[in-house]
Every structure is written in structure tokens, then in C-alpha cells.
Amino acid sequence: MTVPTHNLSDADLAAALAETAGTLLLEVRSSGLLGDKALGKAGDQTANQFLVHALRHLRGEDGLLSEESADTKERLDKSRVWIIDPVDGTREYGENRTDWAVHIAMTIDGRPEVGAVALPGLGLVLRSDRPTLLPPMAGVPRMVVSRTRPAKEAVEIAQQIGAELIPMGSAGAKAMAIVRGEAEIYLHTGGQYEWDSCAPAAVALAHGLHVSRVDGSPLVYNQSDTYMPDLLICRQEWAREVLDRVAHLVNSEA
To answer: Domain total for the chain?
Structure first.
């Protein structure tokens, strides 16, 4: 029976798109025909073509921002805007790792209202409309950081609070590690773009996690400049201490 896709809720559509794009990406990778860099490029383009076509067909009145498509300013006049990252963690995808993701988010007036983050290598799709109970926290806090270029601020604050550093690939994988109870803190100060954090932010917020810029202000999306300098996603129990330590670190360097 054909699924009436036009009748899907935004949350169901986001999850279906994330899961389907993840399946496509796994099939492209399993072909074994391409090396790391070529595989990453092919994956990005394949997933993006599918996602953009689907959203234009199913949500044509909404705005759209994708990492892999040329940006247009028409989205700025829209209340509802989809923000997608076809492959978050292209390097990890090309290296046959599992710490990469597919991000599908829908914002309303700049707020991340709906999100789905697929972790295809793990066979998981985490959704903003289906939050689960957070697992118990570890006795020693765990902080996820970039496996290739961990931010010095994150490393310094981890030392201050005695946190264990967990190197990991994509931003989506890091944020979902907090949701899944694999870590307590994701602090990033190395700069990202809206598509790197929008879907993870929506999922994290739905699970009751703290989500903000490192000055404590909310993440705001669908801006003319899509660059986002920093973020903090963490368990509520650690938010105040991490924010205070970041502020002290910034003030001491001023």
C-alpha cells in the first residue's frame, strides 16, 4: 500500500527522510567502489539530491537550507524552514566509521521545533517527538570532543571539572551521545553552521537537555549568516557549572 506522504506529520516526515537517506548512504558505501574522499563526496551528493527533492515535493511552501545546496535568501521570509545536513561527519562516513549522522530539522521562526537524527551505522533514528528517559549519569562526567581537533576551551574545562574526554566524529553523533547516556557534556567552541546543530538541538531539547550558546543564550536558526560560533548541549545538572566556567575562562583571556 502506498503511504500518503503528504499527510505525514512534520516529525514523521523528518524521521522517514533521515532513515531513508541513511539507508542510501549505507548502500553507496557498501558498494566498495570508491575511496574515502570520493565516497564522502558521492554520499553527500546522493543524500542531498534525495532530501532536497523530497522536501520540495512534500513541503514546497516551506523554506529550505542544506549544507550541500546553494543558499538562497528566500528562506529568510519564511516562518517554517527545513535545515538539513545530508551527511554530518563526511570524513567518518568515508572511513567506514559509525560516528556520522543525517540531520533533518524544521524550524519555526528560528526555533528548532522538529528534529530527527539518524545514526545509520548504529541503525538508530532519534526523534524530537519520541523522547525517551535519560539514562543515569556517570559518577565521573564524560565530555565528547572532536576526535581530530578538540577545542582548547573544552579540554581546559574538562580538566577543571575532572571530566573524561571522549573523542568522537560528527556533531550529531556527539549530541546524540548525550541523549543516549554515553556522555554528559558536549561543549563546542570551534565554530559550526546551522545544519551542524539544528536537528541535534531539537532532539536534545525534546529530551530535556540543556541546549544553548556558551553564553547561555538560545540557539537561533534561519539567520542570514549561517555560522554558529559555539554551543553547549549537556545534562541539566552540569549546565550552570559549565556555563560559569566558560564565562570565567573568557573573562580571564580578555
So the answer is: 2
The one-digit pLDDT tens for each residue of the chain (254 residues) are 344 556 799 999 999 999 999 999 999 999 877 777 788 889 999 999 999 999 999 999 999 999 999 999 999 999 999 999 999 999 999 999 999 999 999 999 999 999 999 999 999 999 999 999 999 999 999 999 998 888 889 999 999 999 999 999 999 999 999 999 999 999 999 899 999 999 999 999 999 999 999 999 999 999 999 999 999 999 999 999 999 999 998 888 76
pTM over 0.90: yes
- 88 is an annotated ligand-binding site residue: yes
Q: In the block, which residue shows the cell 521545533?
A: 113
* 215 is annotated as contributing to ligand binding: no
Range of the domain at 188: 142-253
CATH classification of the domain holding 18: 3.30.540.10
Q: Is 77 assigned to a binding site?
A: no
Strand partners, 103: 85, 117
Asked if residue 67 belongs to a known ligand binding site, the reply is yes
Three-state secondary-structure class, residue 198: helix
Using an 8 Å Cβ cutoff, are 87 and 50 in contact?
no
